[in-house]
Amino acid sequence: MPLAIRMFEMVYTISTKVLLDPLQLGDILASSRRNNPALGVSGILLYHQGSFMQLLEGEEPTVRELYTRIALDPRHHRIASLRERHIETRSFGSWSMGFVALDPRLLHDLPGRHALSSNGTLEHDAETVLPLLDQFRDRQHHRYIMT
């Protein structure tokens, strides 16, 4: 009997060195949605003004390799790993990459409202941004996720 493979989840924040226009952002999403199914990776990407928070889930070696490739991309800086853990089931398994363009008005009354700093970028510490991500995981705000 084959061994069951435990899923692995990694959450990180990263900033781009220049703001992305909608076409560039669309290219990133298209690439993720095209490549992730073949890798067995699913997840969600939250974006606001050049800052991303991403949750990747899949087999641990694959997720770590993808994270390393993203971290080494010269267009990125300020990468911070927020959480790494083994999981029993995927939270975003139906999406090769769900996407949320964060709107400060959406965040106003949410526990994750402090996820955006005063200059409008995503904060890079777990205590501040993980509650926001967990709200999407718990399906409280699925209407905002573009698939």
Keywords:
single chain, 147 residues, alpha+beta, five-stranded mixed sheet, 5 strands, 28% strand, globular
Measured as a percent range, the helix fraction is 25-40%
Terminus-to-terminus distance: 35 Å
Q: Structural class, from helix and strand content?
A: alpha+beta
Please trace the helix and strand order, writing H or E for each element.
Answer: EHEEHEEHH
Strand order of the largest sheet: 4-1-3-2-5
Summed up, the helix count is 4
**Low-confidence parts, pLDDT < 50 over ≥5 residues?**
142-147
Work out the number of β strands: 5
Strand fraction: 25-35%
The backbone outline, from C-alpha atoms, is globular
| Mean pLDDT over all positions | 77
Largest sheet: 5 strands, mixed
What Rg is obtained from the alpha carbons, in whole angstroms?
A: 15 Å
Written description of the protein model:
The chain is of the alpha+beta class and 147 residues long. 32% of the residues lie in helices and 28% in strands. The protein has four helices and five strands, in the order E-H-E-E-H-E-E-H-H. It has helices at residues 22-39, 60-72, 104-107, 126-137; strands at residues 7-16, 42-48, 51-58, 76-87, 98-101. A hairpin with a 2-residue loop joins strand 2 (42-48) and strand 3 (51-58). It starts with 6 loop residues before the first strand and ends in a 10-residue tail after the last helix. Residues 142-147 have low confidence and may be disordered.
